[in-house]
Design a protein that fits this description.
CATH superfamily of the largest domain in chain A: Beta-grasp domain
Oligomer: heterodimer
CATH topology of the largest domain in chain A: Ubiquitin-like (UB roll)
Strand order of the largest sheet of chain A: 2-1-5-3-4
CATH class of the largest domain in chain B: Alpha Beta
Number of helices of chain A: 5
CATH architecture of the largest domain in chain B: 2-Layer Sandwich
Helix content of chain B: 25-40%
Shape of chain A: globular
Number of domains of chain A: 2
Largest sheet of chain A: 5 strands, mixed
Number of strands of chain A: 5
CATH class of the largest domain in chain A: Alpha Beta
Distance between the termini of chain A: 45 Å
Number of strands of chain B: 14
CATH topology of the largest domain in chain B: Uridine Diphospho-n-acetylenolpyruvylglucosamine Reductase, domain 3
Radius of gyration of chain B: 18 Å
Number of helices of chain B: 12
Order of helices and strands of chain A: EEHEEEHHHH
Structural class of chain B: alpha+beta
Strand content of chain A: 15-25%
Helix content of chain A: 25-40%
Strand content of chain B: 15-25%
Largest sheet of chain B: 5 strands, antiparallel
Strand order of the largest sheet of chain B: 4-5-10-6-7
Radius of gyration of chain A: 16 Å
């Protein structure tokens, strides 16, 4: 019971064969050794596994490889371009938005989605806190994460 | 997860054929309920039939009288639909409160309705707005759709294709969510269309239900005060680590009041 699939991961074409039941997060971590995407719960609540599939934030622990056939996947490893951090990554660094770092890749991927959804609008703290409902952090109390996202939003919207 | 055979259907007929040929088949739409269930080993289908390849199952259509949501439309798309926000905002709000942004990019009305999780949001809208569930073989009115815990009127192999909602004069949706999962401890959809009042409750019982006493009171006086003193019985209501049956009974009245207030605006 295996499936063949092809997808693009961080811009590179990938052809794979795996068990029908393999989750995307398992394939990314165990087969492709892209271990930036994390597994933090078993209930689809924590958000540590968040990646982008065709530009949309999706929890990779709750989608099968088979379902991602033909899709473009971006993981945390795919954000930096030519050695330059993505503005969201930069903002997390500058605003001390992580402590242990376990939730951070998922937070960054989710945060980019928040900024994208509110392109052209003034993003406020209340909206950011609300739209982070799919990401749980045990260390920071979210305070600097929110600051980082608001800061990144300024930079990202200026670029657009 | 237990092992299974993944099959991707490219048409409704192919999906039904896969289903008919499978030992213990299960359809999958967004997978936001099925996959977590499989990960916990709470189900063991032999075949998982992905409906994502079936064409023309995605979209929202809004007219002055009717809202149509095709079965595979993700919650995020429903919530963001500008016409729906104008014409039936309570339904857009309901969709926008399901799970979280990532879950809303995958979860669908068809999956939610067919599965009938006692804590899911959409079922409250189907009874609370008097919707019709359209399948590959017939139409089922909302009042006849939800039967019991995870039990609906759907027959073996039947596939939901769309849900249609009559546009009410006014409606409001309020939920008391579980803080971690954001599932409904209790969610109430209240609507009024002419002399017809509906109060649809989810989260409290085995499946979505209406509250005739509240509907009668609101028919004479569509105001929060009309339902403030109506207590529903805790008998048979859900009891778990999140809330007792008594607390859920209490929340039904509180959410109903707030939903009416929202409907009035």
């Amino acid at each position: 019971m295996t499936v063949k699939f092809s997808m693009t991961v961080n811009g590179k074409p990938v052809q794979g064969e795996t068990e029908d039941r393999t989750l995307l997060v398992q394939y990314l971590r165990e087969d492709m050794r892209l271990t930036g995407t994390h597994v933090g719960c078993d209930t689809t609540q924590c958000g540590c596994c968040t990646v982008h599939i065709d530009g949309k934030p999706i929890k990779s622990c709750t989608i099968l490889c088979a379902q991602v056939d033909g899709c473009e996947v971006t993981t945390i490893e795919g954000l930096a371009q030519d050695g330059e951090l993505h503005p969201m990554q930069n903002a997390f660094r500058e605003n001390h938005a992580l402590q242990c770092g376990f939730c951070t890749p998922g937070m960054v991927m989710s945060a980019i989605g928040i900024v994208d959804r509110h392109e052209g609008e003034e993003l406020d703290e209340k909206t950011v806190r609300h739209e982070l409902e799919g990401n749980i952090c045990r260390c920071t109390g979210y305070h600097n994460i929110v600051k980082a996202i608001l800061a990144a939003s300024e930079v990202m919207n200026k670029g657009a | 997860m237990y092992e299974f055979t993944y099959q991707k259907a490219s048409s409704l007929d192919e999906a039904k054929n896969f289903h008919g040929a499978g030992e213990e088949p299960k359809y999958m739409s967004g997978g936001m309920t099925l996959l977590p269930t499989l990960k916990q080993r709470l189900a063991r289908p032999s075949n998982v039939i992905d409906l994502a390849g079936v064409p023309d199952m995605n979209g929202v259509e809004v007219t002055a009288d009717q809202v149509t949501i095709l079965a595979r439309t993700p919650h995020a798309v429903v919530a963001a639909n500008a016409d729906l926000q104008k014409t039936l905002p309570a339904l857009a709000k309901l969709a926008g409160g399901i799970g979280d942004p990532m879950v809303r990019n995958r979860g669908t009305i068809g999956g939610s309705t067919a599965n009938s999780d006692p804590a899911a949001d959409y079922p409250a809208s189907i009874v609370g707005l008097g919707a019709t569930v359209h399948t590959d073989r017939r139409e089922i009115t909302g009042d006849d759709f939800f039967l019991d815990l995870f039990e609906t009127a759907l027959e073996e192999g039947e596939i939901i294709t769309k849900v249609t909602y009559p546009v009410p004069d006014r409606a409001g949706y309020m939920k008391f969510p579980n803080p971690a999962s954001r599932y409904c401890i209790v969610g109430v959809m209240v609507s009024q269309k002419g002399s017809d009042v509906r109060v649809g409750v989810t989260g409290a019982g085995a499946c979505a239900f209406r509250v005739p006493e509240m509907e009668a009171a609101l028919s004479s006086n569509f105001a929060p005060e009309a339902v403030a003193d109506i207590k529903i019985s805790a008998d048979g209501l859900n009891e778990d680590i999140h809330a007792s049956a008594e607390y859920r009974a209490h929340l039904v009245t509180v959410m109903a009041k707030r939903a009416v207030a929202e409907a009035i605006g």
